[in-house]
């Protein structure tokens, strides 16, 4: 769950563990130039992704919640309805470097974020709808819950 602000509408990485060249794909959240997109991989080379089609503008803060619940992946923007896709395999657990504001190609950081990134919080469980609403707090945000 990150909170992000775009300065430009260029395609950029938000966070993840994703190295295309080494077969080190695990998970990645990006802004694709139009929408936010969430990728996961079970084998380090292939991937499943979803695009949340919420309208995105520059100079605006966004609350993003991406998840994997054992059956589906999902991505919600500003506590809206999540875009989802079936994904029942485990997400690969590799030694890929975790990065905020970039991803890696052949071990070199690239696709740098152009804007601001607030807290990035990762839970080892799916949050309830009530927890998501609590954190979003009508757009004013709250300190993450444990």
Can you walk through the features of this model?
- The protein is built from one helix and twelve strands, in the order ββββββββββββα.
- A hairpin with a 4-residue loop joins strand 3 (27-31) and strand 4 (36-40).
- The longest helix is centred in the last third of the chain and has 8 residues, at 129-136.
- The strands form three sheets. A five-stranded antiparallel beta sheet has the order 8-7-6-1-12, with no helix packed on it. A five-stranded antiparallel beta sheet has the order 5-4-3-2-9, with no helix packed on it. A two-stranded antiparallel sheet has the order 10-11.
- It has one domain: Sandwich (Jelly Rolls), CATH 2.60.120.200.
- The mean pLDDT is 92.
- The protein is globular and about 40 Å long.
- The protein is mainly beta and 146 residues long.
Topology (elements, then pairings):
Blueprint: E1 2-6, E2 12-17, E3 27-31, E4 36-40, E5 48-52, E6 61-68, E7 72-77, E8 83-86, E9 99-100, E10 103-105, E11 108-110, E12 115-120, H1 129-136
Antiparallel strand pairs: 1-6, 1-12, 2-3, 2-9, 3-4, 4-5, 6-7, 7-8, 10-11
Summarize the structure.
By secondary structure, the chain is mainly β. Helix content is 5%, strand content 40%. The chain has one domain: Jelly Rolls, CATH 2.60.120.
């Amino acid at each position: 769950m990150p909170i992000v602000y775009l300065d430009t509408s260029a395609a950029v990485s938000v966070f993840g563990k994703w190295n295309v060249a080494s077969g080190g794909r695990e998970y990645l959240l990006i802004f694709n130039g139009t929408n936010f997109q969430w990728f996961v991989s079970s084998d380090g080379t292939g991937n499943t992704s979803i695009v949340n089609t919420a309208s995105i503008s520059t100079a605006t803060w966004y609350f993003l919640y991406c998840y994997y619940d054992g059956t589906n992946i999902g991505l919600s923007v500003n506590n809206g309805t999540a875009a989802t896709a079936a994904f029942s395999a485990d997400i690969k657990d590799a030694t890929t470097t975790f990065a905020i504001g970039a991803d890696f190609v052949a071990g070199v950081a690239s696709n740098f974020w152009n804007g601001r990134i607030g807290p990035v919080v990762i839970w080892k469980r799916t949050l309830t709808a009530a927890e998501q609403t609590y954190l979003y707090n009508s757009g004013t945000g709250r300190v993450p819950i444990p």
